[in-house]
UniProtKB/TrEMBL annotation:
<dbReference type="GO" id="GO:0005975">
    <property type="term" value="P:carbohydrate metabolic process"/>
</dbReference>
<dbReference type="InterPro" id="IPR011050">
    <property type="entry name" value="Pectin_lyase_fold/virulence"/>
</dbReference>
<keyword id="KW-0732">Signal</keyword>
<keyword id="KW-0677">Repeat</keyword>
<keyword id="KW-0961">Cell wall biogenesis/degradation</keyword>
<dbReference type="InterPro" id="IPR012334">
    <property type="entry name" value="Pectin_lyas_fold"/>
</dbReference>
<dbReference type="InterPro" id="IPR000743">
    <property type="entry name" value="Glyco_hydro_28"/>
</dbReference>
<dbReference type="Pfam" id="PF00295">
    <property type="entry name" value="Glyco_hydro_28"/>
</dbReference>
<keyword id="KW-0378">Hydrolase</keyword>
<keyword id="KW-0964">Secreted</keyword>
<feature type="active site">
    <location>
        <position position="281"/>
    </location>
</feature>
<dbReference type="GO" id="GO:0071555">
    <property type="term" value="P:cell wall organization"/>
</dbReference>
<comment type="similarity">
    <text>Belongs to the glycosyl hydrolase 28 family.</text>
</comment>
<protein>
    <recommendedName>
        <fullName>endo-polygalacturonase</fullName>
        <ecNumber>3.2.1.15</ecNumber>
    </recommendedName>
</protein>
<keyword id="KW-0326">Glycosidase</keyword>
<keyword id="KW-0134">Cell wall</keyword>
<feature type="signal peptide">
    <location>
        <begin position="1"/>
        <end position="20"/>
    </location>
</feature>
């Protein structure tokens, strides 16, 4: 974007509003900060030169689950065969753990642990299916179905399917029937405590709860992954990122009964590109701050998305009573189609059977940019900035936003939210306020931000970001 143009535009805007000149400078600094942060793709994780093991198998050792007794008829229990095949593959240099195509492998909750020998490929061409009966689930693995951990430099790929057979779990959820106890159900696929991981082309469907969780990991590239579950399946988030850094998701198609993508505490440097989302609850940062906890998320970019028939579009959600911050987020080039809340910040989030009390402490939300977002809304309040009374949102910046509703006018809701719009912004964001004091405060945030981001990167993963294999 043309800098001079922005300066001129802002100048005109601010003068027209009779705002002091130093504010123009402050706001411009914010813009520049938001414009300039990019997730580092130049230094991308170079995992393998071989895009597909089949094309150029030289040196690879095939470890086929069938050779370890897997039956693949969808009825026989293939868990032990998978465990034995994993032990062999993990201990072998340049192994390919193969789940052959056109078969259905019934596999129990299992931990696939690393570290493994170098250049492991997990090639999933067939279907891995979970036992469908919650009563028989291993209580020691209540939260997992297929969990991969402590891997470094691993490629997951194939046209296969990971099928959580979740329908009985959904039926026993407290969201479906209030007399059911609320308890956690397994995540279909988890990648935990790992680095330099690529996941390409898999389909994950009908998970018991969340579909794909990336936790405590760094440098993960996910592409062409599809996730699907019915729109009314409870808590079936598509891709959930927690305590992870330097993650790129691209060309993914996600439709479930909860968030298409959710990004929670301890995550930074997350880029989402070309995402198709719907049905579901949209692309979310949060929830954060539940039970007075600390939630920190920074440097998140969503660039190019189509969000259709969802309850939310781009959302930031935090509970009352939390602390920490969400800072440095850009949502851009998003097309919304029939979305209930296309743009929403909800600091009064309360996904609990009992009501939540307002508190003075909150997760601080600042430096959030919305750019080139258009389409249709199902609610008149096309934009909602419901921020904490005691910890206002600051530096919300909107540019070229156009949201419309059939046969109705639309409006923006603000509570305790500071920021501004430039270019076309419809509905208008006049309810965002800009106070001098606020701006000074936010200026300090900006000065601090770079160092804080650097610190965050240092403490978590800087040594991994530049890994080349
Ligand atoms: C799978 O889990 C069920 C229930 O816990 C158990 O009966 C069965 O033996 C398990 N299969 C394997 C191979 O561990
Ligand atoms: C809810 O669950 C209870 C206990 O399992 C059951 O008796 C009741 O019929 C269920 N209600 C609905 C609406 O399914
Ligand atoms: C939030 O993430 C940080 C950094 O990864 C971690 O140290 C902390 O324990 C997490 N807090 C919660 C409440 O999960
Ligand atoms: C959170 O902190 C507030 C204020 O200190 C306290 O009243 C509340 O009980 C706490 N909530 C939880 C879930 O611990
Ligand atoms: C809330 O946090 C406290 C202190 O960390 C913990 O003891 C308690 O179990 C948590 N409550 C819930 C509902 O998670
Ligand atoms: C705005 O976003 C839409 C939807 O992603 C995209 O097709 C279009 O190219 C974007 N426009 C600009 C100027 O980037
Ligand atoms: C919490 O505060 C918000 C904003 O001031 C207000 O709209 C809401 O009614 C309050 N909720 C409760 C439970 O007091």
């Amino acid at each position: 974007m043309d800098k001079l143009f922005i300066i001129t535009l802002l100048g005109m805007l601010m003068l027209a509003n009779g705002v002091a000149e130093n504010m123009v400078y402050n706001n411009f600094a914010i813009l520049e900060e938001l414009e300039s942060f990019e997730i580092d793709e130049e230094n991308d994780v170079v995992l393998f030169d071989i895009p597909s093991w089949t094309r150029e198998r030289g040196g690879k050792v095939l470890v086929n689950v069938d050779s370890f007794g897997a039956v693949g008829d969808g009825v026989s229990d293939d868990t032990q065969a998978f465990v034995k095949a994993w032990e062999t593959a993990c201990a072998t240099l340049e192994a390919v753990f193969l789940v052959p195509s056109e078969r259905h492998y019934l596999v129990n909750a299992t931990r696939f642990k690393g570290p493994c020998e170098d250049r492991l490929v997990i090639q999933i061409d067939g279907t891995i299916v979970a036992p469908g009966e919650p009563k028989n689930w291993d209580p020691d693995l209540a939260r997992q179905w297929l969990e991969f951990s402590k891997l470094n430099g691993v490629l997951f790929q194939g046209n296969g399917v990971i099928d959580g057979s979740g329908s009985k779990w959904w039926g026993s959820s407290c969201k479906k029937n209030k007399t059911n106890p609320c308890r956690e159900s397994p995540t279909a696929l988890t990648i935990d405590s790992s680095s330099s991981v690529k996941v390409k082309g898999l389909t994950i469907k009908n998970s018991q709860q969340m579909h794909f969780v990336i936790s405590k990991s760094a440098s993960v590239r996910i592409s062409e992954v599809s996730v699907s579950a019915p729109g009314d399946s409870p808590n079936t988030d598509g891709i959930h990122i927690t305590q992870s850094t330097n993650i790129i998701l691209q060309d993914c198609k996600i439709g479930t009964g909860d968030d298409c993508i959710s990004i929670v505490n301890g995550s930074s440097g997350i880029k989402m590109k070309r995402i198709y989302c719907g049905p579901g609850h949209g692309v979310s940062i949060g929830s954060l701050g539940k039970n007075n906890s600390t939630g920190i998320v920074s440097k998140v970019v969503l660039d190019t998305a189509f969000i259709s028939e969802t309850t939310n579009g781009v959302r930031i959600k935090t509970w009352q009573g939390g602390n920490g911050y969400v800072r440095g987020v850009r949502f851009e080039n998003v097309r919304m189609d029939n979305v209930d809340n296309p743009i929403i910040i909800d600091q009064f989030y309360c996904d609990s059977p009992t009501s939540c009390q307002n508190q003075t402490s909150a997760v601080k939300i600042s430096e959030i940019m919305y750019r080139n977002i258009s389409g249709t809304t199902r609610s008149e309040k096309a934009m909602k900035f419901a921020c904490s009374d005691s910890v206002p949102c600051s530096n919300l910046v909107l540019s070229n936003v156009n949201l419309e509703m059939e046969d109705s006018t639309v409006e923006t809701f603000c509570n305790s939210a500071e920021g501004f719009g430039y270019g076309i912004v419809h509905p208008s964001v006049d309810c965002l306020t800009s106070h001098d004091k606020e701006t000074e405060l936010s200026q300090n945030y900006i000065l601090n931000e770079k160092t804080e981001i650097d610190e965050l990167a240092d403490s978590n993963s800087d040594h991994i970001v530049h890994t080349e294999l």
